[in-house]
Amino acid sequence: MFPPVAAFAVTAALFLSRPCSAYPELIDKIRARQINVGSLRSSYDYIIVGGGQSGLVIGNRLSEDSSKTVLIVEYGYVDSNPSQLEPSSAVQYPARDLFNVTTVPQTGIGGKRVSVYAASVVGGGSTVNGMLFDRGAAEDYNNWAALGNPGWDFQGLLPYFKKSTKFGTPDAATVQDYNITWDPNAYGNGPIDVTFPSWQWPTIKVQWRAWAEVGVPKMPDGETGNAYNTYWVPNNVDSQSRRSYAKNRYFDPVSSRQNLHLLTGYRVNDIQFSSSKRAQSVRIQQRGTANGAATTTIAANQEIVLCAGWLNTPVVLQRSGIGPQDLLTRAGIPVVVDLPGVGSNLQDHPATQINFQCE
Ligand SMILES: Cc1cc2nc3c(=O)[nH]c(=O)nc-3n(C[C@H](O)[C@H](O)[C@H](O)COP(=O)(O)OP(=O)(O)OC[C@H]3O[C@@H](n4cnc5c(N)ncnc54)[C@H](O)[C@@H]3O)c2cc1C
Ligand SMILES: *[C@@H]1O[C@H](CO)[C@@H](O)[C@H](O)[C@H]1NC(C)=O
Ligand SMILES: *[C@@H]1O[C@H](CO)[C@@H](O)[C@H](O)[C@H]1NC(C)=O
């Protein structure tokens, strides 16, 4: 099921750049909490592979217990450019913060190859993305549960969706003018600010009418599992329309915890397993060094948590010997677990633009 969504309704609003006089950034403090490879402990209770969106959230939660040590290893760096907080950053693709990969020829578009981006920066996709704060339809999650993952259905996940968010009441005049609708019960009292910016593109009204004319109904509450037909998608921005994301909401506030270390500019090459196939340690290598250059091994007393994103989590698994046996054997990687699905079945949402002049 691939429903038409009214994502355009809010994307447009993010082109607007707003004047901001101060950035409540804690850059110097974060720098202080970043660790050099020489200052690493020889082992941590938890090692998180990737300091992107999910990695920073998990790092925050695991380090709440001050008796547990947590290391986050991130290939990218901190992007301290204030422009990344601006609404206009929603439509910029800062090459410094991205992996830019080219697909194999796509049969659906005449064999063309296309560029696909994945974030590579502290905060991951939440640092560079379009700030469309969208949830899937209930059926999408219910299908996960049906595949044998109890608790991953929409009702099972909703408490966590709520927990991460706080909804800021939007400007009443804009709400009325644009007939913006949402379900206040779908949000909680969490760190990520979510709202509808006060400025919307006037041409959106015409687009809403067009959808109605072709018979696509409006859903009043896309965030409660009704993410199909057309509906309003809010943005993860604060009351001044600044990006509210994993780094400034989940990492910065806890970066002074002594038990939480962030190492940037290093890649986890692979995970090493014991003979009983227990994940024991990660092997890391400095970004920019050649294949075969020096690596450092760091042990995990408890768990290694993979948060390297859709592009690189399968790569780390394959390099560690978890993946399709044929492929691993051809690459000279000893097989730990023959798991054919690793590195396959990627689904992404295609995006294209239609530009026209409004008069
Ligand atoms: C340009 C762009 C626009 C987007 N727009 C939207 C939007 O408007 N709304 C929306 O909901 N979603 C959007 N997304 C998607 C959303 O941002 C992602 O789904 C989300 O950030 C994924 O989180 P993640 O933790 O799985 O991975 P990521 O946030 O990508 O984090 C993975 C991290 O792992 C690091 N890493 C990778 N390999 C290694 C390794 N071997 N060792 C160490 N570190 C490694 C990467 O550098 C990265 O920082 C967008 C994504 C992009 C790229
Ligand atoms: C990604 O790579 C393609 C092909 O090399 C290039 O045309 C495009 O400009 C790159 N995008 C960014 C954001 O660097
Ligand atoms: C506003 O949206 C609601 C549904 O969310 C719809 O019933 C109503 O007709 C809309 N009003 C206008 C003026 O478009």
What would your notes on this structure say?
The chain is α/β, with parallel strands linked by helices and about 350 residues long. It has 2 domains: about 1-30 and about 135-235, no CATH class; about 35-130 and about 245-359, FAD/NAD(P)-binding domain, CATH 3.50.50. About 25% of the residues lie in helices and about 20% in strands. It has 11 helices and 12 strands. The protein has helices spanning about 10, 25-35, 55-60, 125-130, 140-145, 155-165, 170-180, 205-215, 245-250, 310-320, 325-330, and strands spanning about 45-50, 70-75, 100, 115-120, 165, 190-195, 260-265, 265-275, 280-285, 295-305, 320-325, 335-340. Strands 7-2-1-10-9-8 form a 6-stranded mixed beta sheet. The chain has a two-stranded antiparallel ribbon with strand order 3-4. Strands 5-6 form a two-stranded parallel sheet. One 2-acetamido-2-deoxy-beta-D-glucopyranose (NAG) binds near residues 98 and 100. One 2-acetamido-2-deoxy-beta-D-glucopyranose binds next to strand 3.
